[in-house]
User: Fold this.
Amino acid sequence: MYKEREMLQRLLDGELNDSEREHMLKAIDADPVLKRDYEGFAETILALEDAKHPSAPPFFTAEVMRRLPEQRAPFWKQASLFLFRPHTVRWNMATLAFLLLAALFASVFLAGRGAVQTAAPEQGKAQAVMVAFRLQAPGAQSVALAGEFNKWMKNEILLTRTDTGEWYVEVPLRAGTYAYMFVIDGRTWMPDPSADAYRDDGFGSRNSVRRVYHL
Amino acid sequence: MELTDEKVVERCLQGDRDVYSHLVDKYQQMVYVLAFRMLGDEAAAKDAAQESFLSAYVSLRSFRREAKFSSWLTSITLNKCRDMLRGRKDTVSVDDLEEVLPGRDADPEERFHQKENEDLLQQALNKLPDEYREVIVLKHIRGLDYAEIAQTAGVSEGALKVRAWRAREMLRFLLKEGLGTHV
Assistant:
């Protein structure tokens, strides 16, 4: 009996396979009590699914929107509003005097820093030494030097050919270690055979390394 | 270009408060009917529906996108209704089924006049225990399948089916009593 009722509910939920369904429908036809139950449940479900529902009250959306809490805008939006929204500034003579004094101090401070900063490069330049780069390449039409000191620009530092077929240039460098390569005829990258050392370039080749010391 | 639920949620999270009205417009009927059928009272349903939309808005950051917004909102509404029902004294628990099943209206004539003017279906739903009403409303009025109800209501599918079967038996009995017909 329980099994029958379970099957009846599963039939109402559409959960029976074809053979179960066929079997159940036959059982319902054969049993007046089961048939009455089935029809009763089916009508109950129909009453639920066809029920007329009340409509949401008028102005529902407006009321919800009125009650919504103000949401805090993200930082970037707040910053944007602060920067681009017009502001009213109130001032008095004391504020003006304070601002003038602050501006005066700032200009004196910056002027002092400027003097130091312009002096620094001079000092740095004084520490630079002229470093010679040489390459034996008699057949080359042009040779350039590219390295960490010039951001690997291959047309910036050009070597000069001497009478012996040697290419030569002097570059001012401060103390440190620099990776570099020669560029032959604007396209062939070549390490320096007389480099102090070599370092992997990360692309399967090796850069030349030059060490520059303090005098 | 159509404004999808996901886009509306995204814009709300970016601080565009007004765009939330799209979701309220779209789902107000669904939420209101669910609340009304659960609570059986228009004023309470309006409160529950509004509170559900407000809660959803405040919790938008916790909305995980793997579920549909409508499913998440249904779940919030259901919880609001549960909270309101808990506050009522006249709810019926599953243990009180024996008291609910027999028709309690003593006077058939009075019952006859009452049924002419009132929503008998809602009256029958109101007499179901909350857990039974929940599954019946979600299945036959909201139109969800058992898997969706399980996700929304946080109950196993097996338990839901048993509740649905018992709820339908009770409802059939209650409607038959109310309508005075052989349903």
Residues 36 and 68 of chain B are 22 Å apart (CA to CA). Confidence is low (pLDDT under 50) at residues 94-106 of chain B.
